[in-house]
Amino acid sequence: MTEHSNLRRAFLEVSDLSVQFPTEDGIVRAVDGVSFSIERGQTLAIVGESGSGKSVTAQAVMGLINKRNADVSGQANFDGEDLVAMSDEDLRKLRGNKMSMIFQDPMSSLHPFYRIGDQLTEAINAHQKVSKTEARDRAIEMLHKVGIPLPAKRFDDYPHQFSGGMRQRVMIAMALINSPSLLIADEPTTALDVTVQAQIIELISQLQREFDTAVILITHDLGIVADVADEVAVMYGARVVEHGSVDDIFYHPQMPYTLGLLASVPRLTQVRNDRLDPIPGNPPSPLRLPTGCVFHPRCVYQDEVVGDLCRTQRPDLESVGPGHEVRCHLPAAKRQAAAEVALAALGRSST
Amino acid sequence: MVILLLLLTLVVFILFSLLPADPARLTCGKGCTPAVLEANRHKLGLDLPVIQQYWEFMKGLFVGRIYAADSPDPVVCNAPCLGYSFKRGEEVLVLIKDRLPATIWLALGAFILWLAAGISVGVYAALRRGRWQDKTVMGISLAGYSLPSFFLGLMAIFFIVIRLQLLPYPSYVSPFENPIQFFQTMLLPWIVLAILYAAFYMRLTRNQMLEVLGEDYIRTARAKGLPERIVIRKHALRAGLTPIVTAAGLDLAGLLGGAIITESIFSLPGLGSLAVNSVNDADLPVIVGITLVTATFIIVANLIVDLLYAVIDPRVRLVS
Amino acid sequence: MSQSVEPAAGEPALRVSDLRTYFPVRSKGLFPKTIGQVKAVDGLSFEVFPGETLGLVGESGCGKSTTGRSVLRLIEPTSGRIEFEGVDVTGLSSKEMVPVRRKAAMIFQDPYNALNPRHTVGAIISAPFAVQGVKPPGGVKAAVQELMERVGLNPEHYNRYPAEFSGGQRQRIGIARAVALRPKFIVCDEPVSALDVSIQAQVINLLRDLQDEFGIAYLFVAHDLAVVRQISNRVAVMYLGQVMELATREDLYARPLHPYTHALLSAIPVPDPRAQKQREHIMLSGDLPSPAAPPTGCVFHTRCFQAQDICAVEKPALVEPTTGHQVACHFPILEFLGTKGILGPDPGLTPQAGGSLTGAAAGSNDLIREIGTDYGVGPDTPIDPGPSIWR
To answer: Is C244 a member of any domain?
Structure first.
């Protein structure tokens, strides 16, 4: 991904993004030097566990972090403009217009007191002057597009009259109503049942093809990543620890955390001995991130690194293949060997 | 609702019958003889058992009532008869009707003042949470909350009326008679009463707003790119309104039953001062009457609050 | 764990027969009346044997959690019979339930709300001893610290409060409390769904180890089929208060018979991109019907791609076509339909690439069938309804 920048800028290029919240207990480093890029029509999955900084990253890109309470630094070049340096008013004009976002919990993400039609047309009116009937027509068309039956009738209904899956469809309609070129989906299906999740994921993919949207999908679910992502950034302890194509991450993983994640996921079919291999220990508190490599207290390979590099020195994001980067002190050969073992346990080979 | 009111009058009746004071004794003055006392007691209907007194009262409410019908000077009290005060020689309903306007004006004026001040300052504090503006507002609110209204009222009279002579001494007139004097009289009571309540509404509004501003749908509103003032006014404030409406409805209704201290300090002829005097005189019919009127206000306010809920929150609307 | 448990062997730890838990639906207004019932659990029968895990899966509102709570009588069942080790506990008073509760415990979903924040970990874990009046040899504190060590907590943290622990550690506290009295049976209600993946695996392994050590029977309630597969010997799939299919783990995941089980399995994306692209893909249309107004006949027929006229009329009985494999369906899927099975688009959406609208769609409730030619069934061939026991 770095070689792109010489030729031309990617559609969205985030570099060295950091977000810190000063609190009474100390500074919370929620995002610490995160870089990634994405093109139109592509899907980038940001994977990580709770507290890894994936949601804050997304909110920083959207300008949803209140700069009064947080320090945001770095760059986020979006179609030629830097989102981090931009004024609040300019950001507002982009939000919901050229870039938009859907959230985890559709039950609480719609305002309970307003008709969904009003909430949709409000999104149109925030960015352009259109007549009332035109806004209504566009909203109804969008509701139809996201698969709401009888959209003209449902236009006047309140959120509580919709099921969870239908509300998420309304959220998607609202996010896409101004045809944004960037959509950030923050755990869009986590609160939904699996059968509904499948519908929503399919819907997002379909609309992405139609509008040629760049999608950043934030999730903890490796199954969804495998299903829809083109590129994957694995986050841990506020940093991106591995970044690559979906094939890189699932078939040539390098970072011990990625390996541990793959080995922890329960599967539908027996792919290894019957027992899961969990990552030992607990995720770090963003208030007290470990020194050196953020993953070292839980890493089973730290003894194989000479000296106490893992404890003292922060590893750089090192390129290990085209578009594939890893943040790890382990020598390449040992990383390879670790990956072989982990993949063999999953019944997969790296070739 | 009707059942509630009936129960309430019954409780008031029983409570007062347990009081050691004898209302008949109080009606009869210095030259009291046992015979006069007995006659007065009979006239008041106090010689009947409590339950029967209650029955007479209820009958009076619906069909009217004649006190001491067998005596040479019966007192007629037409329906709806809330009772007759022998102490004051007037029907309770008339007494209340006379006193009600001052109370209503006082309550309404203060209500508007405190809502406007409380909500706007509360929203302001919430938007500057944790910063000096917020802390100042919360400090002022705490002070307003802890200051007793008699202290505030007396200070206001002392400094503004007596020392600085900015306003004439309060003397209540109807606004339709002399609007200028009315406003001069009411201004201080309104402010004193409003400060007390505004302190509470600031806190309530601030906390409500802070809670609502953390809601997911506020994040959605911002993610749509709505201007911040619309996010605050249209999305956050409306969502935080429900508990404020509840509190406002009940507070207003409570005040309509009389702001005892404020009315006394500013010598306003309202229900509150009437209530105080009646308690001192053990004037049972008046007390029961005021209790009933106040309770009716509160119950009606509850009903209105419930209806307002439905206007604010579509989820409350009944599914037909 | 891996050894299969013979259902016939010995007394079950728990036997549930025809369990029903209905919740009244009340009208609003001054005088609320009961205007209907939500049949949260509607005629469930199953057994859990010592040392065995029965998984209970389904989507939200299918009644799986209500079942777990009804079994322990934390929610009073409407009818049915619950037996612990052969003893009928259905009619026992809450006083008579006390000794029973020594044998049966529960682990809750939310490690943040299930522990009293004002009690120390020691107090929380020792509560069962106090409630039951049990005096463990060596004293309560020693017993609690042994338990803490056993579930992977530092025994020195005896006097800490729940807020000082992470989500995974709190779930370990909940587990220590549940196993304190060495129960024979534990209801685990979504014990890992609030946890991160890496922590989930730790807790699943812990639950399995404790089971092996103490011979506990688990009723494992969860929505995640992969998690359930990891821990269960047998699995029951629920939909709208009823069991659709109940089978051994091997049978259920490799040879599911019920269309709903197929749909559930195919809806879960697997963390393997190449495999995921080749998988059978069934998409159910619509949402779950309201449990207050369940469909007639087979409750699943409104979303079923196999449904025919009879399904809307007649409720299929739970039958056992092969030993230990129960299914309630008029038209169970007796063979896999190939790698590409049934595709169904969302209502109002254009069909996905690869799907083709054919005449068959008309009969199958807005769903499109595309059936692999390898199996000799074309789109117009009706699916073999199976042996006569299905009719």
So the answer is: no
